[in-house]
Amino acid sequence: MSAMPGIVAINTFREAVRDRVLYNLVLFALMMIGAAILVGQISLGIERLVIINLGLSAISIFGLLMAVFIGVGLVYKEMEKRTLYTLLAKPIRRSEFLVGKYGGLLLTLVVNTAFMTLGLVAALYYVGRPFVSADAWIFVAIYFIVLEFALVTAIALFFSCFSSPMLSALFTLGIYVTGVFGTDIRDFGEFTKSPVLKVATRSLYYVIPNFHNFNVIGAVAHGEAIPVSLIWQNSLYAILYVTLVLVAASAVFSRRNMK
Amino acid sequence: MSRLRATGVPWAALAAIVMLFGLIAAMQARIDADARGFAVQKEELLLSSPTAIQKLSLGYDSLLADIYWTRAVQYYGSRLGPGKHNFDLLYPLLDVATTLDPKLIVAYRFGAIFLSEQVLGANRTDLAIKLVKRGIEANPDNWRLSGDLGFLYYWRMKDYSDSAAVYLDGSKKPGAPPWMKLMAARVAAMGGSIDTSRMIWSQVYESTQDPRIRKMALKELEELKAQDDEQHLDELAADYRKRFGRFPVSIEEMRKAGFLPQVPVDAEGYPYRLGADGKSRLDPRSPIVIEAPPKPPGASN
Amino acid sequence: MSTPAIEIVGLTKDYPVGFWRKRMRRSLDNLTLQVEDGEVFGFLGPNGAGKTTTLKLLTGLIFPTAGTARVRGRSIDDFRMHRDIGYLPEQPYFYDYLTARELLDYYARFSNYSAVERRERVDRFLGLVGLASAANVQLRKFSKGMLQRAGIAQAILHDPPVVFLDEPMSGLDPIGRREVRDIILDLKRQGRTVFFSTHILSDAEMLCDRVAVLAGGKLQGVGAPGDFVSPEVSGMEILFEMRDGRPLPSVLTRAVSIGTRYRLEVPDAELYCTVDRLRECEARILSIAPVRPTLEDYFIRVVGQERTAVHALEGMAR
To answer: Measured between beta carbons, which residues in chain A are less than 8 angstroms from residue B67?
Structure first.
């Protein structure tokens, strides 16, 4: 295994930190504090529900935006600013460079999420509920959210290889929304009279990244258990899809002429 | 190998991508299969109040309404399989859809039938009435909804005075067909009867394009025909007894005696049978099942 | 005959231009060239001649339309070739959130050094390019000249056998340029091959074993700097002043005035009678020196021809 991607990844992480990206944690902390205090006042027995719903949703949204807005610049910025020139002259394959940039952003997201998790746990603690074993499922929900990040980042990186940040962000978010409503799109297709449309929507369903697979926030907020089979299935799905997108990105980037 | 490379197309990458898509599709199918029960649970738990959803919808109300309506129908369909007759989420889903889009008439109509339906439905006539009443409030000129409410009062609640009142009210709405006034009069005068019921269900069948509702209506009409036929056969058997001093052994015997031209069959093609007590009943092999029929006025049971 | 350090055969690059990207502009046309091991090779040409294109092709930033090239026997397609090269791009840009030390440390990681060795190298090369005092300053605060030095440092810190420099002197003051010249000479002394592009001809004359001249994407000529100039003396150049603002004698009107002084070129044969005439009008003779056509003259002539040809072509196209 080459060490090159790791070198690039660490540097990408360093860039994110120095770009003060992690300051979003401050906003998150403020939100959780506000929520915990408010909820503590109401105490209708739904504290856990609200804190977990809010906390997990915030983790998801913050991370998603970060994945998209940093992701679409990952390669584009380096090409625009020509920082890539000296780097590509080194003995590093273009694909290794891509994997490195990807890994660096993913690492940033994981670190960001870890801090947010601490914040969520602290808020839960403050609200006064004793921890129950059902709370363990929260971590599964967070793991699924991280899997979502992994997939969104890969897609943003892919577009970053050939498209401007604005367009890339639109495409990436568009694909994300499509993936969230995947089952509905397929169901709409079932209602049409045209067999062509039925086949088209069903095929589309299997091809798009179905982000709805990863959303267990509601269940976990109610203390429900997550089927273990779903855990390894989602992991495998994410691995397969991320691999696919990175292969595609590599194919596009490897023969691209720098300006 | 280098000749492939020379074409400039990344063949290896394309092959890998196609293969990966195949694996991904298989994985998705697996997830869907395994998580079916969990997903529905998920749905239930995600459902908060309709007003909350409305606030979160960021203005895309009618789109979300359509999505929830689609989900309601999918939900209903998915619960028709054996051993799954729990329709608890049907009302909440329809509730959200109609809150987001109060003019979503199809949702009210679907709810009218399938919320009140006893076996293949939620068996909650109260919720059905609640939903349709809201629909009428939001769409005061829609005669079809009045028809649905009238139907609910008549068929489910056996509340003939309310039913007649609703039909009358509906008959005054723009575009209302003449049979509504007729229905109001019949129900007011005669209460429940097989003929009236058949009229109502026929109208339900005619007034909708929804294949599920039509299927339900047809089933009811078949049952009503069976009831009607049985009543008719019972009367003939009583006549036979008056004439010959005993009940006929079978319907075939009645035919031989000239009481009827041939042995009648039900709507599914199965011949009726005659019991020792002179009461006719459906062939046990027939798929038609008579649920609790409305009492005709003055009839004893 | 050992393998040439750089071997270029028929290298060509077309760019799609125009709104629909249909027309092709040929920025490099069939370049064939060899650079021997240990040579300092200058790549000359005006702006837009294709020098940077060539360097980008050799370093794998862009891909050729046709032709091949090898560096130390390895094709430019092979990423392992990059172990043997160092590259300074024209106007280098670096991650401006890193300090100079961090940048060099980062690049050094792509070669196999232990942590200790890496630190030692980074310090040494920071010193070599004169950035030791600015080692911990973020690159966003660097001047153009400082960035240039950082660029040179990263190009050579892994001791590559072949070094590609694109306009290494640009952005540097005369002291900086002298330092770069010393670095290049030092590299040569270490037996490395240096391939650099420039349009400062005096640097090329001074440093290079051989030069190639590129214009309009085509190779115009290759050889030692001395080969471009004719050995014969074409005449003598006299610098003189007129006393007390006296007018120039009519015989000497060919003289060109440079401020208060005059410069006159005369063929060898006319030297002495010209000097006599100057003495007659009591001009003060400042210097008499032989004139030989320089690389610059060759350059201007060749480029001028190329430009005329290009304009002619463009005229026809219209």
So the answer is: 181, 184
For the ranges A242-251, B39-48, B229-238, which has the lowest average pLDDT?
A: B39-48
Domain extent, residue B34, equals 13-46
Name which CATH class applies to C6-228.
Answer: alpha beta
CA pair distance C250, A8, nearest whole angstrom = 73
ipTM for the predicted complex comes to: 0.88
Q: With an 8 Å Cβ cutoff, are A7 and C110 in contact? A: yes
Å between A23 CA and nearest CA of chain C: 17
* Cα→Cα distances C106→A189, C79, C111, C178, Å: 52, 19, 10, 28
Strand residue runs (E) in C104-259: 162-166, 193-198, 210-215, 218-223, 235-241, 256-258
Q: Among B216, B237, B252, give the residue marking a domain's end.
A: B216
Q: Would you list the domain boundaries of chain C?
A: 6-228, 235-291
Which among A155, A151, A180, A166 is positioned nearest to A57, based on CA atoms?
A: A180
- What is the per-residue pLDDT across C27-45, written as a single tens digit (0 to 9) for each? 999 999 999 999 999 999 8
CB contact under 8 A, A218 and B45: yes
Q: List phi, psi (to 5°) of C3.
A: -60, 135
A228, B38 Cβ separation under 8 angstroms: no
DSSP code of residue B155: I
Contacts of A218 in chain B (CB under 8 A): 42, 45-46
Angstrom distance (rounded) from CA C232 to CA C268: 11
pTM: 0.77
Confirm or reject contact between A206 and chain B (CB < 8 A). yes
For strands C261-266 and C235-241, give the pairing: antiparallel
Question: Which residue has better confidence, A57 or A135?
Answer: A57
Domain residue limits at A92: 4-254
The domain tally of chain A equals 1
**CB-based contact C201:C44 (threshold 8 Å):** yes
CA of B287: how far to CAs of A78, B146, C204, in Å?
Answer: 71, 32, 101
A interface test, pick of C17, C58, C97, C152 with most A CB neighbours within 10 Å = C97
| d(C-alpha C170, C-alpha C176), whole Å | 10
The low-confidence residues of chain C, meaning pLDDT below 50, are 318
The owner of tokens 């600013």 is: A81
